[in-house]
Amino acid sequence: MRIENSFIPVSGVGETTERTLWAEGATDWDCFDQSLVGPKTADNIETFIDTARQRLDAGDTAYFDEVFPSSERWRLYENFRDNACFFDIETTGLNQEYDKVTTVSYHQADETTTLVRGDDLTAEAVQAAVDDASLLVSFNGIRFDQPFLETSFGIDVDCPHLDLMYPCKTLGLSGGLKKIEQEIGLERDRPDISGRDAVRLWNEHGAGVDGALDTLISYNREDAVNLETLAETVTDELHESVFEQACQRSVE
Description:
Layout (H helix, E strand, L loop, with lengths): L14 H9 L15 H19 L3 H7 L9 H4 L3 E8 L9 E8 L2 E6 L6 H9 L3 E4 L2 H13 L7 E3 L1 H6 L6 H7 L11 H12 L5 H37 L4
Parallel strand pairs: 1-4, 4-5
Antiparallel strand pairs: 1-2, 2-3
């Protein structure tokens, strides 16, 4: 589903009205017919479309992040997927005030980079990776990864952020990332490793255990890479259940 299919950011347009518009044939901005709604709502929609076209041409993800309800942020993905940054962090614990970030992996444009504490994991490197993206994609990153990075490195992560945990819940996919991956048939190279193991691996690395850091990096990188597959799956299913089913009403 693309942003151009959406009318829900408009004042006076809720979920029911938007789905009615789709069912009546207004499946995107080009197909909008003012006669389908009242004059005030029609004016609001036309004003939105004029502004949104300009912002979309400019690649202004922040504008759409602001005007879309947070529950509908997944709709930004199709338009901005090419410059989306899928990211995941590993830490020494759950408290961002005193625990440390050990590795950060970014997957963007089919390339994956891992920053490691004590090597290249710096505030400048993290900020640069964030600033280079149009859309951040994570799992539980809004509550955990993003604030952890901001607190640990004193940076400001203000890039629009799609946290896949929430659209997953909309589809009835609950639990952690690994559980959801299993539900959608996404396999891992090391399914036996968990977040708790990531803490252990970092401690083993500090103790000089050979191969511990490589295993940790591999685990962290797989988290970031798998987020792309999860995003594709979730947005496709939401497109089907939200948009396609509404459009089907027009032909039944």
